[in-house]
Design a protein that fits this description.
heterodimer; A: mainly alpha; two-stranded antiparallel ribbon; 69% helix; 2% strand; globular; B: alpha+beta; Penicillin-binding protein 2a (Domain 2); Beta-lactamase; 7-stranded mixed β-sheet; 5-stranded antiparallel β-sheet
Chain lengths: 356, 605
């Protein structure tokens, strides 16, 4: 027990807590003018997440990897059931109500998926056809189900496992070329058959937001105005006109970075980015006993990094608005809990080499 | 053991660490640079956009200035008008909202739906005006339960009110919303959409004094256009107070006196040329133009044959009848064609240019001089005078006395009337003037057309022995109780000898006080001088004259122009009763009552 505490990466954990606490203050500001109580829910979710974090942290790594596939399958079944049975919140079937609490199961897929992908990667020397097909099937199955819900953001983020897997393992050149062609091809197919017109508009509008001023471009324009008008020092907590007079859409979820930019300014926003930077830097530096652990840490933190990049670049108009939240900061209990579960495994892996 | 042993080389791990670190540095540098660009480099631009998002500039209409009579009695002022607005964006259930709106406004559900449909193309945040002039109880009810009715808003704005309703309606005139065409033509930039402007009467004439100075508000609004707070305000400045020469007591007395008759009365203060009373009947309530007027209501008032909207005092065109004999007599005396000693023998009719012309008295007046001719309004005397004069000479005297052109009173849209002459005849009909026409004109018939305003100016000029007053209603302009402008009395001299005016006045005195045609206007203790006039609608020569004049609309108009007292005159007056019949019996007694009222009020009788 003493060793657990000694080798636990307390510094990185403090960064994590810092982000989660900042989140509550920001969600409070985002809902301040409309008297929303999201911040209270988020605080409760944070307490739950911390509790679960230490439970997961206490589990043996071997046990976790051993059961990953079963959890993965269970989630696939739940996703299928959700689609079949329905249950709609905000036009999507991704929400599930349990004891009055909304669960977004799609958020949890990334943990068993990363674990199982890590396992598969150890089974091959190089990614040949067989390995490629296996990896793709495992990734595409939940992605397809989540697209059907439809939740573009989560499914898009899960797709980032594809490049991560290719970067982590040697791949046969032929497989690489074909897989790239496949990505392009499925992109075109997806564009025309899977995406709905409003989703397509959302994606295109970031290229020329002023043309979509009154519809989908509105988000980007208002977000840029919020960030840009924050200036060096910001307008002050609870004093951002874009946030408080509600010009900023989804200000407690996808555009929470714009609230930060507006109310806290360039200096503090940069400080927040610096916290993220240190967090990622430290999470990518570790020791390990088993190959699965190495792959998992890269897959899981890589996914969070992608999510971070997309969310931030979206807020300044460099990326389409896909409904991707800022990890640890955006409002969302399922998202927060899933991130803490995944990080618990990461933290556990990082101390394993010191424990005998 | 489920997990596999470590096989990944240290070199690969190192490479992975380096690659991920380099990637992190590049990405974070890019994000840092991008935020620097937006937050620092383009800060000014986005700050402006953020300000533009939340601020709205609102023009605050200025309350119009008051209009008061010479004693400060209020004729026109402002009240707060409450308007019920519906904001579609805040509607939860449209059917229920329409029902509520119908209850509040008293309008039918169908009517409310029609109003809402009209604004289909406007944004959901547009305030749709459901009803103006909302009763105060409803305003209080809605405002105290604003949480229950988020879709409704109450707007407040000053609106024009005329506390005495119909009183002096034609003097005050009316206001209405500026039209788009006018707005486009307006170069001053003072007016904006929805502004009210004076359309007629003093409301129009005094527009520059009454309009006031608009204020403005800069407000902070949210994304759904709801106002959060006021950030700065310039209070509007109320328009200046227009003080009229009108004496409301006299005005009221005359309006009641005329009752349901249709016609016009003007009373002039001869010391100043200020109009003490200006009545046109029937009248209207100017406030109807300040509120929504139904189609039926508008058609009823605009198609009324008695023309309630017309100010008959300056827009009514009538033949002057025998009142014109004053001008004939003046011209004759000034030209030396007649003198107090010359006389004509009236037998009741006389032939001129192969046509028989009649006196109104078929028995004839016998030998008449200028005094008797005026006293009894003898046609034969003036036929003979007219025969000796050129039409253009008569016309020039008529113009000298103010006929054929606007009286110049300070009210808009005045009519000029018509003084016929040979050039006019040639231009209009491409015919020469026939001498027989001059005979008709000499008793005020033919093509002559005058307004009551011109007749008032004429009799005032006679009363003042050739000093022609400038008729006016504006006395002074006040701003916060201080006089900022005063309108001076103005007189001009008519080039006719004063002694000739004295002769005419002697005749006019006899009209009232010597059993003349205006004897019904006689009052003990006041020397009233006057002249009757009966303006025929159909010629007396018409064989059906007797039968037709049984009907009111064919009865002649009754004129009575007068002034008092004879020496140092104070008051001049014109009374016109449309289709009143015999002037001596109708118009003259009305004048007597008005004199009595005025001089009693002044303590002079």
């Amino acid at each position: 027990m003493k060793d657990y505490f000694k080798y636990f990466d307390k510094f990185t954990f403090v960064l994590l807590l810092l982000l989660a606490v900042i989140s509550i203050f920001l969600i409070y500001s985002a809902g301040y003018s409309s008297h929303e109580t999201h911040y209270l829910k988020q605080a409760v979710w944070l307490l739950v997440s911390l509790l679960v974090f230490f439970i997961v942290f206490a589990l043996k790594i071997d046990f976790i990897f051993r059961n990953a596939f079963a959890v993965y399958l269970a989630l696939i079944v739940i996703l299928v059931l959700q689609i079949v049975l329905g249950g709609t919140v905000a036009r999507t079937k991704s929400w599930f109500r349990l004891w009055g609490i909304g669960f977004q199961f799609s958020e949890f897929v990334k943990i068993p998926l990363a674990l199982y992908l890590a396992k598969i990667l150890t089974q091959f020397e190089v990614i040949d056809w067989k390995a490629f097909v296996k990896l793709m099937v495992v990734i595409v199955a939940p992605v397809a189900l989540i697209i059907l819900q439809p939740d573009m953001g989560v499914s898009f983020i899960l797709c980032s496992f594809v490049p991560l897997v290719i970067l982590l393992k040697k791949i046969k050149p032929a497989v690489l070329v074909i897989s790239l062609l496949l990505v392009v091809f499925s992109g075109i197919i997806g564009w025309y058959s899977v995406l709905r017109p409003y989703q397509r508009d959302r994606i295109i509008s970031f290229l020329n937001p002023s043309e979509y001023k009154t519809s989908t471009g509105y988000h980007i324009i208002q977000s840029k105005i919020a960030i840009g008008s924050g200036g060096l020092g910001g307008k002050g907590y609870l004093k951002g006109s874009q946030s408080q007079y509600r010009f900023l859409p989804a200000r407690h979820t996808d555009f929470i970075i714009s609230t930060i930019g507006e109310e806290f300014g360039f200096i503090n926003t940069s400080l927040l980015f610096f916290v993220f930077f240190i967090f990622f830097y430290r999470q990518f530096k570790f020791n390990f006993k088993n190959d699965e652990e190495f792959y998992f840490i890269y897959l899981f933190n890589g996914l969070i990094l992608f999510q971070f990049i997309i969310n931030v670049t979206m807020a300044i108009g460099f990326f389409p608005v896909l409904g991707i939240s800022l990890p640890f900061v955006s409002y969302g209990g399922s998202s927060l809990l899933s991130l803490f579960i995944g990080e618990a495994i990461v933290f556990r892996i990082k101390i394993n080499t010191y424990l005998t | 053991m489920y997990l596999s042993k470590r096989k990944i080389s240290t070199a690969f791990v190192k490479r992975a660490a380096i690659v991920s670190t380099v990637f992190l540095v590049i990405i974070f540098f890019f994000i840092f640079a991008a935020f620097w660009s937006i937050q620092i480099f383009y800060n000014e631009k986005y700050t402006q956009l953020a300000i533009r998002n939340i601020t709205r500039y609102i023009e605050l209409p200025a309350p119009r200035g008051m209009i008061v009579d010479r004693f400060g009695r209020v004729l026109a002022e402002n009240k707060i008008n409450f308007t019920l607005f519906l904001v579609r964006e805040n509607v939860e259930n449209l059917e229920k909202a329409i029902e509520k709106a119908s209850n509040f406004s008293g309008k039918s559900v169908v009517a409310v739906r029609q109003i809402i449909d009209k604004y289909k193309k406007h944004s959901g945040f547009y305030r749709i005006p459901i009803k103006s002039n909302l009763p105060l109880e409803t305003v209080i009810f809605i405002q105290s339960r604003q949480d229950e009715f988020p879709e409704f808003e109450i707007g407040m704005e000053p609106s024009r009110t005329y506390p005495l309703a119909h009183r002096a309606a034609h003097v005050l005139g009316h206001i209405s919303e500026i039209t788009e065409a006018e707005l486009n033509a307006d170069k001053s930039g003072i007016y904006g959409f929805g502004d009210l402007v004076g359309r007629s009467g003093i409301e129009n004439q005094g527009e520059t004094f009454l309009q006031g100075v608009k204020g403005s508000q800069t407000v902070i609004k949210n994304n759904v256009e709801r106002i959060q707070r006021i950030s700065s305000e310039v209070k509007p400045e109320i328009g200046e107070t227009v003080v009229l020469t009108l004496d409301l007591r006299l005005q009221e007395f005359i309006e009641n006196l005329l009752g349901n008759e249709s016609g016009a009365v003007g009373v002039l203060d001869l010391k100043t040329g200020g109009v003490l009373a200006l009545v046109s009947k029937p009248d209207f309530n100017p406030e109807i133009f300040s509120r929504e007027m139904g189609r039926e209501e508008w058609q009823a008032i605009s198609n009324d044959p008695q023309k309630p909207l017309q100010n008959k005092f300056l827009q009514g065109i009538y033949s002057p009848g025998s009142v014109f004999k004053i001008i004939m007599a003046l011209a004759g005396l000034q030209e030396g064609i007649i003198s107090p000693n010359s006389s004509v023998f009236c037998t009741g009719s006389q032939v001129f240019y192969d046509r028989v012309f009649h006196c109104w008295n078929p028995g004839g007046h016998g030998a008449v001089n200028i005094f008797a001719a005026l006293q009894n309004s003898c046609n034969i005397y003036f036929y003979n005078l007219g025969k000796k004069m050129d039409i253009d000479t008569i016309a020039s005297y008529a113009r000298l006395m103010g006929l054929g052109k606007e009286s110049g009173i300070d009210l808009p849209n005045e009519k000029a009337g018509l003084v016929p002459g040979s050039a006019w005849k040639m231009n209009t009909f491409q015919q020469r003037w026939f001498p027989g026409e001059t005979i008709s004109v000499s008793i005020g018939h033919g093509s002559l057309n005058v307004t009551p305003a011109q007749m008032l100016k004429l009799i005032a000029t006679v009363a003042l022995r050739g000093r022609m007053p400038k008729l006016h209603l504006l006395q002074r302009i006040e701003k916060q109780g201080k006089v900022v402008r005063e309108f001076a009395a103005g007189f001009s001299r008519v080039p006719i000898d004063e002694k000739n005016f004295e002769l005419i006045i002697e005749g006019l005195f006899r009209v009232v006080n010597n059993e003349g045609t205006g004897r019904a206007a006689k009052i003990d203790g006041l020397d009233i001088c006057g002249k009757t006039g009966t303006s025929q609608i159909i010629a007396k020569e018409n064989p059906r004259y007797k039968k037709l004049t049984q009907e009111k609309k064919f009865m002649p108009h009754s004129w009575f122009v007068s002034f008092a007292p004879m020496v140092n005159p104070r008051l001049a007056m014109v009374v016109l009763v449309e289709h009143g019949g015999d002037a001596g019996a109708i118009a003259a007694p009305l004048a007597a009552q008005i004199y009595k009222k005025y001089f009693e009020n002044e303590g002079l009788l």
